[in-house]
Design goal:
The complex is a heterodimer of chains A (318) and B (242). With 318 residues, chain A is mainly β. Chain A is 12% helix and 56% strand. Chain A is globular. In chain B, α7 links the parallel β9 (154-158) and β10 (185-190). The two termini of chain B are 31 Å apart. The chains are: A mainly beta (318), B alpha/beta (242).
Chain lengths: 318, 242
């Protein structure tokens, strides 16, 4: 096992964070909130006015309490960086979020595991979005090329009246390894939930995505969107569930899985359920090979076939 | 520039294209006029080599070379391109990036220029995706802009006017004329004889074969007189039976 000093840990993690698309400079600015965690150690935690970040290191990870105070609109995105640099390790993040009424924040998280051979990263989140609060959460992963990683992000999100939860989970760099994504959102009156997942599976990646939206309040709206591209022997199963339980609730499940090659396997299980006669939920799922017409359109502009496929794949995962 | 000689295509035992011959000269806008179902799109696909269509007979010669065995990319690199009747939608691909694919080292000003040429306000379109959020007419104009940006030697335009409203049509036609002025030959495929007014010559297609070729006004009249009520859709017949 390689041992890391705290400073080396921080520099190593920030290097990986930058490679994954993170903004290195943002982590050093006092006016920008951040939280950097390596394995079970908190290397940096900077709350800004209107945000409180409390952490507790545990044996296998970190418990986090993230509060956005009532009525506060945070100007700059808050940056999170979680990761494990050694080849082996376990990181369990227990996250409690309380975005109080009328607050607003954007959170950009990068999860980096560049050397993973036998790594497990778990996140168990319990999130409350207050009335008319808005929380935008973008999580981008960077994994190494070995595929020796298991990622298990789970979240339960309660969205208050007029509140908005938007999340985008992106895992398109490196091998996925094993992913078991499970997000569930409950929306009250006029609450909005948008769940977006983008994953590029390669090698022997094993991907499970489960998006659930409960539209429990009048006029609540939900979108469960997933975009997956699979090549080699990657396998994926996407479940998108939306429940229209209140008048004028509107939900949509939108799943596209592209299979590039003959050995990858994609499955989609959309579930739409309506228990109120004035609710409406729709779904669309498209699973299959990359559209030949799209490829030929780009080839007719002079791109080789591989280049054309690459443009299409990058587009769908953008 | 383009010689199509005795082209044939049979699919599932049925003759789709039958002994079709066509000549497009350098610098020419050559109209192909035919009713729906007469094989116009099939001819475009056979020349471009898309949709897995391979001729079951005849030759397609471009600049003296038989291109039957070339891939779509290879044909494009030789200077041929196709604008589909219903262009593909590509999620996540911005208009600016789509147009950029058509040429080397394109700057933003050139991309804007090509959008202006088809009557689209660049500020409204550069950052939109070439996806289902565009209307049919918008997508077709962007397709034409993409072909303009490529500056091909031969542009095959399959029904560039279909789905276009009367306000946008002049922009499309003007774009085709500009394309020709900048040096491209054009194979202009349409069922609308008015569109062929911008062509130098027109060939009338029926049941997978060219019936006659001539001046646009003459062919337009002949088309109206003979083809409007014709039932010979992909049922090859002799001209004498018309």
């Amino acid at each position: 096992m390689i041992s890391y000093s705290v400073e080396k840990e921080y520099q190593g993690l920030v290097d990986a964070y930058e490679k994954a698309g993170g903004d290195r400079s943002a982590l050093g600015k006092p006016e920008i909130g951040n939280l950097v965690i390596h394995e079970n150690k908190v290397l940096s935690a900077n709350g800004v006015e209107g945000i409180k970040i409390e952490t507790r290191e545990t044996e296998t990870g970190v418990d986090i309490y993230f509060l956005v105070e009532e009525g506060v609109k945070i100007k700059n995105p808050v940056h999170l960086c979680f990761g494990i640099l050694p080849r082996e390790g376990l990181q369990e993040i227990i996250l409690k979020v309380n975005a109080q009424d009328n607050s607003e924040v954007n959170v950009i998280a990068h999860c980096v595991f560049p050397n993973a051979i036998k790594v497990i990263h778990k996140m168990d989140a319990d999130i409350e979005i207050g009335n008319n609060a808005k929380f935008d959460y973008k999580e981008t992963h960077y994994h190494g090329e070995s595929g020796g990683i298991e990622v298990i992000p789970k979240a339960r999100v309660k969205v208050g009246k007029g509140g908005v939860w938007q999340s985008t989970f992106t895992l398109t760099q490196g091998l996925v390894g094993k992913l078991d994504y499970d997000f569930e959102v409950f929306c009250q009156d006029k609450g909005i939930a948008e769940l977006v997942v983008k994953v590029y599976g390669k090698g022997h990646d094993d991907i499970k995505v489960w998006e659930k939206i409960h539209l429990d309040g009048t006029g609540a709206r939900g979108l469960a969107k997933s975009r997956l591209v699979l090549s080699d022997k990657a396998q994926a199963e996407v479940k998108g569930e939306t429940y229209g339980n209140a008048p004028y609730a509107r939900g949509h499940v939108d799943c596209i899985e592209l299979v590039n090659g003959t050995e990858a396997v994609a499955r989609a299980i959309p579930i739409v359920s309506v228990t109120n006669e004035k609710a409406k939920v729709t779904h669309e799922a498209a699973i299959g090979s990359i559209d030949r017409r799209q490829v030929e359109t780009l080839m007719a502009r002079g791109l080789d076939e591989d280049e054309a496929v690459d443009v299409i794949v990058r587009g769908i995962l953008r | 520039m383009l010689e199509v000689e005795n082209l044939q295509l049979r699919l599932n035992g049925k003759s789709i294209i039958s002994d079709l011959s066509l000549h497009v000269s350098k610098g020419e806008i050559h109209g192909v006029l035919g009713e729906n179902g007469t094989g116009k799109t099939t001819v475009a696909y056979l020349i471009m080599g898309v949709n897995n269509y391979k001729p079951t007979g005849g030759r397609v010669i471009f600049e003296g070379q038989d291109i039957a065995d070339l891939s779509v990319s290879q044909r494009a690199k030789k200077g041929i391109t196709l604008a589909w009747q219903e262009p593909a939608r590509i999620e996540g691909l911005k208009v600016r990036d789509y147009l950029k694919l058509s040429g080397d080292n394109f700057g933003i000003e050139q991309i804007k220029h090509y959008l202006w040429m088809v009557g689209l306000e660049p500020a409204q379109y550069l950052d939109r995706d070439v996806d289902n959020t565009l209307s049919g007419g918008e997508r077709k104009r962007i397709e034409l802009a993409s072909v303009l940006a490529m500056k091909p030697k031969l542009a095959i335009l399959d029904e560039p006017d279909s789905g276009i409203d009367i306000i946008a049509l002049p922009f499309i036609l003007n774009g085709i004329v500009e394309m020709n002025k900048q040096g491209s030959s054009v194979l202009l495929i349409t069922h609308n004889e008015k569109v062929t007014e911008i062509a130098h010559r027109v060939s009338v297609l029926c049941a997978g074969r060219i019936l006659r070729t001539g001046e646009p006004s003459e062919m337009s009249q002949w088309f109206k007189d003979n083809c409007r009520a014709c039932v010979h859709i992909n049922e090859p017949v002799g001209e004498e039976s018309l």
